[in-house]
Amino acid sequence: MKQLFFASMAILLMGAMGCNKFLNEQPQTEIGETEFWRSEADIQSGMAAIYDGFQDCFGNDYVLWGDARTDEVWRNQYGVDDHVLNALSATSSGTSWANFYEVINRANVAIKNIPLVKAKYVPGMDQAVLNHYLSQAYGARAFAYYWIVRLWGAAPLWTAPYENINEDPDRPRTEAAVILDTVYADLQKAVALSDPKSGNVFEITTGALYAMLMDVSMWKKDYGSALQSFDKLMALNKYSIEPTATWKNLFIDPRSTKGAIWSLDWDWTVDGGASISALIGAGDTNSDFAVEDSVWNYFTQHPMDIRGAQTIDFDVTNHDKFNKFYPKSVGKQVYPNHKEANVLFPLYRLADLFLLRAEIANQQNDPATALQYLNIIHERAGLTAYFATDFPSKATMENAILEERKLELYMEAKRWFDLVRTGKVVEVMDPVLKARQALRMSPEIGFGDKRKILWPINRNVLNANIKLEQNPPY
C-alpha cells in the first residue's frame, strides 16, 4: 500500500507536515485538483493514502488505546506504568491524535475532489464506481472521528480540507456530541453511496459501514438504531460465524473467512513491520505487556476453550507473548522480528456484532434472544451452552456478555471501550488497580479521578494549537 501512496500522494497530502503548526491537526494540501485528481488511478492513490493513514494510526497504538488500560494486560519488566496504572500524562505513548487528523484531511481532500474527476476529466466514468470510492472516504472520516471522540472527547472539527495558508489553522474543540452527530451523518451518506457488491475485507464496504453504524449507536445507547444496522448487515447475506476449527483465520487470513468484516491490510515488505509486535510479541525483542493473571488463569483452567492457545502462548513462562495475530510454521508458533511483522488488525468482525446484538436484547428486556447470541459465540469457542437460569438478572447477563467479549475479542482494541460504553470502568478497574498499586507499595487509590477516563492530549498537539485546552485533571 505504501508504494502506491508514496508514488502518487506524498506531495499531495503531506506537503506541510514539515511545518509544526499543521502537524497535529491539518497539514496543508500543496497540490489541488488542477494537478492531481484527474483519473481513476488518482482516486485509487488517494484511497491508498487514506488506508495508509490508518496503518499509521493503529500500527503501534491499537492495543494502547483499546487494551492497555484494562484488566487484559499487565506490564512486563520492559514496559512502563503509564497505561496499566492509570498514570497517563501528556507525554505518554498514544496521547497524540495527529495520525487521525492525517486520515481526516486525506478523506476531506478525497471528498472534495472525487466528484470532480468525472465532472471535469473522465465523464465516462461509471457513477456507481465513483460513488463507492466516495463512500469509503466518508466512512474513513467518520471512523477517525469516532476514535478521537471515544479517546479524547471534544476535538477540533474539520469537514473540508485545509488548503488556504491564510486561513487560521487553529480551531477550538467541538463538543463530542456534535462530532458524533457528524460521524453518524457521514456513515449514512457512505451507506447511500456504497455498492454492496464491491470491495473486500481490507476496504470500507457496505458491511463495514453497517458495523460502524451499529457501534456508534451502541455508544450513544440508541439500541433501536443499533438493531436496525445489525439487521441490515445480516440482510446482505455476506457474513457468517467462522467455524471453531478455523477461528484463527479471522486474524491471519481474513480474506478466507465470512466472519471478518473489516481488517487492516499489512505487508511488511512495503509497509515496514507493525510496531505493535514489540508490545505483544516479536522474535527479536521482549514485549512491553504480559497477560493479566485473571486471563491467564482462565485460559489455562479451561483448555477446552479453543481461543486460549490461539491467543496467548502457554509455553512462555513470563506470559508476554500474544500469538493471536501470528500463524504457525510447521506446527510451531513462530514470532517474526519486529521489522518484519505483519498484523492484520481486525477492526470489525461478526462475533463482535453478535455479542453487541446480545447486549441490545438484554437492554430491551429480551433475555431469550440475549442468551441465543451469547451462546453462539460461547459454544463456538468449544464451551458448554449457558442456561437461562445462569443469569437471574439483567445485570448478570450483561456481565456475562462483557466477559465473553473480553475473551473473544482479547487484544482487539475493544475492552476499554466496552468498559467506558457500559459505565463499568471504575467498577472493573478499581480493584485491579488497587492490587497493582499494592504491588508497587503505592497508595491504593484505585482508578481515582473519573475524569481520567478520557485520555490526555499530547503536549505537542497542545503546543501546535493555542486554542486547545487540556482534558482535566491532566
Kindly describe this structure:
The strands form three sheets. The protein has a two-stranded antiparallel ribbon with strand order 1-3. Strands 2-6 form a two-stranded antiparallel ribbon. It is built from 19 helices and six strands. The chain is mainly α and 474 residues long. Among the domains are: 214 residues, Serine Threonine Protein Phosphatase 5, Tetratricopeptide repeat, CATH 1.25.40; 76 residues, no CATH class. Helix 1 crosses helix 4 and helix 6 packs antiparallel against helix 7. Belongs to the SusD family.
Q: Order of strands across the widest beta sheet?
A: 1-3
Q: Would you give the CATH topology of the domain at 1-191 and 452-474?
A: Serine Threonine Protein Phosphatase 5, Tetratricopeptide repeat
Total count of strands: 6
Low-confidence stretches: 1-24, 26-31
Q: Beta-strand level of the residues, as a percent range? A: under 5%
Any idea what the CATH architecture of the domain at 1-191 and 452-474 is?
A: Alpha Horseshoe
Tertiary shape: globular
Classified by CATH, the class of the domain at 1-191 and 452-474 is Mainly Alpha
Largest sheet: 2 strands, antiparallel
Mean pLDDT level: 93
Tell me the helix content. 40-55%
- CA-to-CA gap between the ends? 37 Å
Order of helices and strands: HHHHEHHHHHHEHHEHEEEHHHHHH
Rg of Cα set: 22 Å
Number of helices: 19
Q: Structural class from helices and strands?
A: mainly alpha
